[in-house]
Amino acid sequence: MHSPLPPSDTAPNFDPCDLYRDCTLCPRMCHANRYVRTGICGCGPEIRAARAALHFWEEPCISGQDGSGAVFFSGCTLKCCYCQNYPISRGEVGKAISQERLEEIFLELQDQGARNIDLITATQFLPSILPVLEKVRPKLHIPIVYNCGGYERVETLRMLEGYVDVYLPDLKYFSSDKAKKYSGAPDYFQHASAAVEEMIRQTEKPVFDENGILVRGTLIRHMVLPGQKEDSIRLLGWMAENLPKGGFLLSLLSQYTPFFKAAEHPQINRRLTSYEYGKVLDAALELGLDTGYMQERSSAREEYTPPFDLEGL
Ligand code: SF4
């Protein structure tokens, strides 16, 4: 099931961490030599993380009763003005950890009963994480979940083929203007749409274990933003038209909270209304996107953000 590392078309002495010398891991393709300076994501060559602990606030098929084994990595390739994890996405909070320590963390989470290893915003550290996944695989008996903002390069995702069992990407915007305004990434849809197609290609149809935990598949998250329901509906239309029916799950999120710098954008500086969410949900159902999760509006609470206190690192 797992493919070997390095990929067969690379030189035998290929060290994945060489990719940090001229970094093109994400669509920013900023070519930073991260041994000399940080890239746009705010990261150098060392793995940094802010928390590794059981996490109970993912979708039921990810967290289950026992929790996912969530590792929150520092830094991010997106710049969302409403980021709920901004202390870590801006790289302000985080601790450098070695590859050896990351391997131990994965095994400790498994020992604690985690249903999976939930890699949260890991792309900027992939060259360091892939060898750890390769090494730990004989000892790890739970799925690897790749939890990301969807702003990924297909070429980078291909390095993950065979290592990731479940993809958990966001699909945030259809509109380039909105992606630019709210996440600083006008090419978001171009990359994220190709990325989710690649993820679905790798994982194929969702597979659950006897406890209802997703052990293989792609679960696409879309958070409806206030005042943006038309963009959400266009995005859902694209999914219905272009993604294989039954080939993925959809989680339609309503818990938007105007964190961080959302106050700079009056259109999204409020909570979502039931009317807005209902309209988007109706559209999803009309389009046949009925496999997945919807949320109660009352679930918009700040408890979804765990403390980034370096627990478990
Ligand atoms: S991962 Fe970071 S350093 Fe690499 S291309 Fe993206 S923003 Fe630049």
From TrEMBL:
Residues 72-233 form the Radical SAM core domain. Keywords: Iron, Iron-sulfur, Metal-binding, S-adenosyl-L-methionine. Pfam families: Radical_SAM. InterPro entries: Aldolase_TIM, MJ0674-like, Pyrv-formate_lyase-activ_prd, rSAM, rSAM_sf. Coiled coil: none annotated. It comes from the Bacteria. This is Radical SAM protein.
